């Protein structure tokens, strides 16, 4: 987990600003998973719960380790995995919010069910499975349809990533039923089972998904933050780096700005030639970008001084 986290963290610095969100989400979820596995490797983050059934020769009521830190990990990482998918699909915000909610329902009901010693745990398991079915529905029906609107490349990428994650998530309820639910397998076998699933569903999935996205024109998603317009020049707290393209710098006088207003500025940025180059695959269009002069005319309602 940690090695994958560091690799993607370095990788994300090679991506242009405004297109790093998918790599940053991957860093968030892998960092969380690395901390969780450090905790479990240190034999911390578990509670002893009496089993509902006898298992492996132990009588019913024998205490078993329930790793609640794993569920804390999933509470952070599974919404991040879903965001990795749906942010590249154009899915409406209302669907994204509801999707994240039912994902949290799935995780929290799994945690509560694992801590319940009676057969009521299977009621929570049922709620969690119902929430998982809703997550699958959103990803496989409106999610794929929404990605198709963006283009065939987006649909292909989203469908592939969704199929991988959906299949892996199908195995988590199986692991829960065999481990925290029915206590069919030992805690050591549970650790191996969940460990393999987590490696496949987190670092391996992230690398596959990010590589798939590197072939797409991410500017179509309009996820760039910190957008700037000429009308913002002169406002308090503006970004000097952004305003420098208009010829204005906090250390310069107003004459510099006036000179910039008189002549449009033309900038051309080379396109990306590889996945790890510093400019980004679709960092700029092939055509020059023309920055129009700033309109210094008074706005409507602004007072104009008249000399007499």
TrEMBL record:
This is Family A G protein-coupled receptor-like protein. Its main location: membrane. GO terms for biological process: phototransduction. The chain crosses the membrane at residues 21-47, 67-89, 96-116, 122-150, 162-179, 191-213. GO terms for cellular component: endoplasmic reticulum; plasma membrane. It is found in: Membrane. SMART domains: Bac_rhodopsin. One of its GO terms (molecular function) is monoatomic ion channel activity. It is a multi-pass membrane protein. Residues 243-308 are annotated as: Disordered. InterPro entries: Arc/bac/fun_rhodopsins, Rhodopsin_retinal_BS, Yro2-like_7TM. CDD domains: 7tm_YRO2_fungal-like (cd15239). Pfam families: Bac_rhodopsin. Belongs to the archaeal/bacterial/fungal opsin family. Residues 250-270 have a biased composition (Polar residues). Keywords: Chromophore, Membrane, Photoreceptor protein, Receptor, Retinal protein, Sensory transduction, Transmembrane, Transmembrane helix. SUPFAM superfamilies: Family A G protein-coupled receptor-like.
């Amino acid at each position: 987990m940690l090695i994958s986290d560091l690799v993607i963290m370095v990788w994300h610095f090679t991506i242009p600003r405004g297109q790093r969100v998918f790599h940053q989400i991957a860093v968030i979820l892998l960092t969380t998973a690395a901390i969780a596995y450090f905790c479990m490797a240190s034999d911390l983050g578990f509670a002893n719960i009496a089993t509902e059934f006898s298992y492996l020769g132990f009588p019913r009521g024998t205490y078993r380790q329930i790793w609640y830190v794993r569920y804390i990990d999933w509470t952070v990482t599974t919404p991040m995995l879903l965001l990795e998918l749906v942010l590249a699909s154009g899915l409406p915000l209302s669907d994204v919010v509801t999707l994240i909610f039912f994902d949290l329902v799935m995780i929290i009901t799994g945690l509560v069910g694992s801590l319940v010693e009676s057969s009521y745990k299977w009621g929570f398991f049922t709620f969690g499975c119902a929430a998982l079915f809703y997550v699958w529905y959103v990803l496989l029906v409106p999610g794929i349809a929404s990605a198709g609107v963006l283009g065939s490349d987006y649909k292909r990428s989203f469908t592939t990533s969704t199929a991988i994650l959906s299949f892996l998530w199908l195995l988590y309820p199986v692991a829960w039923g065999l481990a925290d639910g029915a206590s069919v397998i030992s805690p050591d076998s549970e650790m191996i089972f969940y460990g393999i699933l987590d490696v496949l569903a987190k670092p391996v999935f992230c690398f596959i998904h990010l590589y798939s996205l590197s072939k797409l024109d991410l500017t179509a998603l309009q996820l760039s933050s910190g957008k700037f317009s000429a009308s913002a020049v002169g406002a308090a707290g503006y970004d000097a780096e952004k305003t420098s393209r208009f010829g204005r710098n906090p250390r310069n006088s107003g004459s510099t700005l006036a000179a910039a207003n008189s002549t449009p500025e033309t900038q051309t940025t080379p396109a990306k030639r590889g996945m790890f180059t510093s400019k980004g695959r679709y960092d700029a269009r092939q055509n020059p970008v023309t920055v129009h002069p700033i309109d210094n005319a008074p706005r409507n309602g602004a007072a104009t001084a008249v000399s007499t």
